[in-house]
UniProtKB/TrEMBL annotation:
<dbReference type="Pfam" id="PF17900">
    <property type="entry name" value="Peptidase_M1_N"/>
</dbReference>
<keyword id="KW-0645">Protease</keyword>
<dbReference type="GO" id="GO:0006508">
    <property type="term" value="P:proteolysis"/>
</dbReference>
<keyword id="KW-0732">Signal</keyword>
<protein>
    <recommendedName>
        <fullName>Aminopeptidase N</fullName>
        <ecNumber>3.4.11.2</ecNumber>
    </recommendedName>
</protein>
<dbReference type="InterPro" id="IPR001930">
    <property type="entry name" value="Peptidase_M1"/>
</dbReference>
<dbReference type="InterPro" id="IPR027268">
    <property type="entry name" value="Peptidase_M4/M1_CTD_sf"/>
</dbReference>
<dbReference type="InterPro" id="IPR050344">
    <property type="entry name" value="Peptidase_M1_aminopeptidases"/>
</dbReference>
<dbReference type="GO" id="GO:0042277">
    <property type="term" value="F:peptide binding"/>
</dbReference>
<feature type="domain" description="Aminopeptidase N-like N-terminal">
    <location>
        <begin position="67"/>
        <end position="238"/>
    </location>
</feature>
<keyword id="KW-0482">Metalloprotease</keyword>
<dbReference type="Pfam" id="PF01433">
    <property type="entry name" value="Peptidase_M1"/>
</dbReference>
<feature type="signal peptide">
    <location>
        <begin position="1"/>
        <end position="32"/>
    </location>
</feature>
<dbReference type="GO" id="GO:0070006">
    <property type="term" value="F:metalloaminopeptidase activity"/>
</dbReference>
<dbReference type="GO" id="GO:0043171">
    <property type="term" value="P:peptide catabolic process"/>
</dbReference>
<dbReference type="InterPro" id="IPR014782">
    <property type="entry name" value="Peptidase_M1_dom"/>
</dbReference>
<dbReference type="GO" id="GO:0008270">
    <property type="term" value="F:zinc ion binding"/>
</dbReference>
Amino acid sequence: MSTFPTPRRGARLALAAAVAVTAALTGPVSYATSPGPADGEPTPGAPGLGDPMFPLDGNGGYRVDRYLLDFDWQAPRTPFAAKATIKATATQHLSRFNLDFGGNTLHAVTVDGKAATTSREGDELTVTPAAPLAKGRPFTAEVTYTADPTQVRHRDDAIETYGWIPTPDGTVVYPQPNGARLIFPANDHPSRRAPITFRITTPKDLTAVANGKLVGKSAGPGDRVRWTYDSEQPLSTQLVQLAVGRFTLVDGEGPRGLPLRDVVPDALVEPTAKYRKLTPDHLAWLEEKLGPYPFNRYGVLVGDTDLGVALETQTLSLVPKADLLGTQVDAERNLVHELAHQWFGDSVALASWSDLWVSEGHARFYERMYSEQHGGDSFEATMKAAYRAHDQWRRDFGAPAEPTEPNLFKRMRYDGSALVLYALREKVGDATFRKIERSWVTRYRGKAASTRDYIDLATRVAGADGKDIAGFLEPWLYGPTTPPMPGHPDWVVDPAT
């Protein structure tokens, strides 16, 4: 995610204590599967994964194998019939399980075709099947509801507004950080990934799009059309995209024949064409740095909204129209930023929200590097400015890998985290840094990975000198003050006042 214009360790312990209190009140809350008792009696799945930022996000006791989403879209800001079919596997002997589900009007839930008992509190939908689910057993939960495309939530950081975002003739969705639950019931945490099938019915004069590949389009009664998309690869719920409107689909080709598909409101096709046509060049530039693009296709969805936030929704980045109607330098910054996320944050997912610096820091790092080479500001100058402000950001927003929830998407996770990568490159040299980067996106492709994973990998790749890398990175990522910048003894940090 991009837009332009925390605690120390003690605070982290306080957050952990809060999670423990939550666990005591609501049941087991842990990143691990909740174990059953020795006698094999079924137990509830955890109602949250215990992430320090959002303790009740995600759920325990099962693994989602696929979502099938059916939406009968009617008109902007108009409720419509919806159904989510969740194919899953129990990871413990399960008496009940939770889904993250906010707002919307619930009608019924079945498990393997039998009516289930439900209760709702906040964003937690608790489902009790007619009979317990044995560990290792596949099951299918079906949730029917009325979706409300007016639902949005707000944050006081770079996210601004998220959920269903209306356009003049339809919608786009901003699910980051945890707004997917406003769209469909889910295991809503970035570390939990599953493929998705979208089946969206619209009036015949509208087009529906979603992540992945269009695998079916058929006419239905009442001058309606059913659009079916397959995400092809698993994705995190925060990366879901589903849009409806009067769109033109513009096909193209990237490096090695990669299919490209831009989704553009009809009136914006020509005005945005110049910058959208740069995507093959952006792909080639990033592939030279990082290796092959990690998915089967890519494209840009032009958002006809006033929301000034771009988003790395998987294989179909959402870029506001304003970004594509301004200067080329600014347009390319956002286009490269969201494309870089396809490697960092999409292909390699976040293990926890505290790892957001890995995703946003890398996207900003490559955005800044590309921009300098194509008419933008000096990369070194922007990093020097970030270095000067870094102690202030640490005090106000938390160290790069120690955010607090209200400050999760503040400046530290962007330029402040790119600065960590800049410092690492200065420490190990460009050749070793490139090896670290390629090893990261290769080793963890299709997986979730953590800050600890990045530190350990950087240490291994750095080879004989690697023994110093952990000791170098940890103060940058967790320390209360900003370490010296290698190679730049003249750089100074303004005191946090």
